[in-house]
Amino acid sequence: MLPVKTWNFSDVAEQRISRGMKQSSATLTIALCAVLFGLVPLFARILQADGMDPSAIALSRYGLTALVAVPFLRWRRGARRQVLVLAGAGLACGLGWVAYLEAIEQTTVAAAGVVYMSYPAFALVFAWLLLGIAPSGRAIAAAVMVLAGALLASGSAGVGDPVALLMMLPAPAFFALVIVGLSALAPDLAPREKLAATMLGTVAGLLPLAALAEPGTLLPVSGLGWAALFGSGLLTALLPQWLYVQAAPHVGPARAAAAGAFELPTMLAIGALAFGEVVG
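The chain above was modelled as a monomer; its predicted structure follows.
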């Protein structure tokens, strides 16, 4: 029987993780990205209140990144399969995010954060299935601790509609798939090419949904809405995603997922300060 490789949050996939950037610097970069990702509910609820359709919100968030990144993509023969893999993961991630936006209107930001913090566990599963790296007991314990910490941190904020929480699960699952893809499934692509391929798939999946949205729901109608539109595209998508693809290959999917735990405190703070949710 062949030996089964195991994977800790502190480990990297053997020979699949790039070298260059210091692992500590890359981990801090991903933590910063997580904080920026945590701002998503703030902008999303402003845009929802301005009457935008969830698919239009998602498309506007990812569209800016796609416009900037896609020109860097080179359709090289040897890397086409990797481009398609990342595009597929991006497509799934975009559709999952639409489900997240649909559900966040029916639950609290804190509860949404708890569900979203299940993505380290999904990352372990995808790494096992796609990379053949079985999670070690330490890795499983770390994923459980992240989710348990999320539950404790959300405290008395409430859960809202349980069905809405289940609707959110595709978002963390497919985000975990993107993490694994960026970290280890496209070694021949430069960071900007990885981002471009992922965003190409995301936009391709969101465009048909946005085209089916009701007239008048594709753009914001107020000055605050337009500010949220650009803020969402720049601060929760273009900037953190650009940094993420530079850093993720230097730490591996497990450590990348663990550093993403900084997203939850940001979401809890947004829920408490912007929407008056009780936390603790």
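Strands lie at 5-7, 133-135.
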